[in-house]
Structures are given as C-alpha cells and as structure tokens.
Amino acid sequence: MIYLMCPPEHFTVDYVINPWMDVETPVDRELALKQWDDLRRAVEDLGHVVHVLPAMPGLPDMVFAANGAFSVDGVVYGAKFRYPQRAAEADAHRAFYELAPDWRFVSPTQVNEGEGDFAYVPGRGLILAGYGFRTEPAAHAEAQEVLGRQVLSLRLVDPRFYHLDTALAVLDEHRITYYPGAFSESSQRLLASLFPDAVLADEADALAFALNLVSDGKNVLINADSVAYGEKLSAAGFRPVLVELGELKRGGGSIKCCINELRQAV
C-alpha cells in the first residue's frame, strides 16, 4: 500500500477548531517529530511505501495529511477546508498530485476535508461519508460524481468526533469498525444493517482515538493508549500494532489523521 504523510515541523496549537485543542498547553515539537517518525517507520516496517509531503510554515495542522484529499483508483477528489486556518493545505496537496503523472486531480466546489470524512470499502465499491461538523452533505454528491462510486452519508452528532475518521474505520475489503454513539440513530441503523460483522468500539475506545487507525487488512496501526481496543481487534482476527502518538493528539488527531492512503488505478 502507498501512503502520504507530512512531518510536524511546524506543529503547534495556537488556535482552537475542535474540542481537543488547548492553546494553554504548550506542544513539545521535538517529541511530536519523534513520534511521527516512529509512526512512519512502523508503516514502512510493514512493507508499505510512504511519500512525504514537505511541511509549510504557518500551517501547523498540515501534519494531519489525511484531510488533504481522498482518492479512489487514481482519481483524486481534493479538499476544501471549513476553517481558514487550514485552507492553504489544500493547495499543497493539489500540487503533490499534479506533479505526479498517475493521478487525475479534481478540484472541489463543496467544503470537505478529505479522508477525514471519507472512507472507502473496496470490496463493496462503497464510500462511507460523514457530515455534521466539517464536510458539507453536498460534497458527498460531488464525490460520487467525481469518483464514480456509491456514497453513503452518515451523520455525526457528537462534536468530540468531528470527523468520520475519529469514529469509524475500514479494516479490510468488507469489514469496518465504529463507535455507534458518534452517529445519529438513523445512521446507526444503516451501519448495523450493512455491516453486521463490524468490530464495535465503546466510548472509552473512541475517546482514546482508537478508531483513528490505519489497517492494511491484517495489521492495524493504533495509538498506544488503545490497548483494550487492540484486544477487540485481536479477537476479530487482526494484528494490532501500537504506536505512541500522544503529542500529536493535542491537535485532535492520531494515527489515521497523519496518514492519507493513495489509492492508485489498478
């Protein structure tokens, strides 16, 4: 698998755009860089390829590379950030794809935050898409047209789980994992109907950012605070790989937020 990451060279918390950010608590950037590099090496040790997007001054959240775009089969649906503090990140991601010949980049007209609110279930050709806090529902229809895949809209109702990737993740070709309490009742019913074999997380798992994970279908990278959730993954037949990422969680993100999957054309 191929991933895109961006080092936290300019990471700090000097504004608040989610419930996890606290400008009163200083960030240890050196520790953040070490933890990010440990995560990058963990990904590579599993046999995957990591491309590195250069960090840009003035964009402290650029380390959360998952939010910059969403791709399926070589087609890239670009991001359009809700908050002005992150707006310029979209241009940096666009430049990355436009410099590579294997991608077809499509600029969005609707507010969306990339893989933060889009997840792809490859065995079903289905895109799960979140809305309620960042991504606009109109972006779901736009993504469906751009990517040629069915999009299922899911409403997020708890501001602590402001992106889909804090409450749901794809584990393999067909299975997902999620925390039901992050979703509206109707969205919960949809998920339960479509994914009866899902690995369910509880509130404690979700609050530890356990669901902000990356899976290659067998190995699942989760943050080191998610030991109890790791046991659930093991019971479901997956291999949890724990990585310490506590300093970056100060920005409201964990493993998945730092990793954008590059889904090239087959």
UniProtKB/TrEMBL annotation:
Pfam families: DDAH_eukar. GO terms for molecular function: hydrolase activity. Keywords: Hydrolase. It comes from the Bacteria. NCBIfam families: DiMArgaseDdahMtb. This is N-dimethylarginine dimethylaminohydrolase. It comes from Allocatelliglobosispora scoriae. The lineage of its organism: Bacteria, Bacillati, Actinomycetota, Actinomycetes, Micromonosporales.
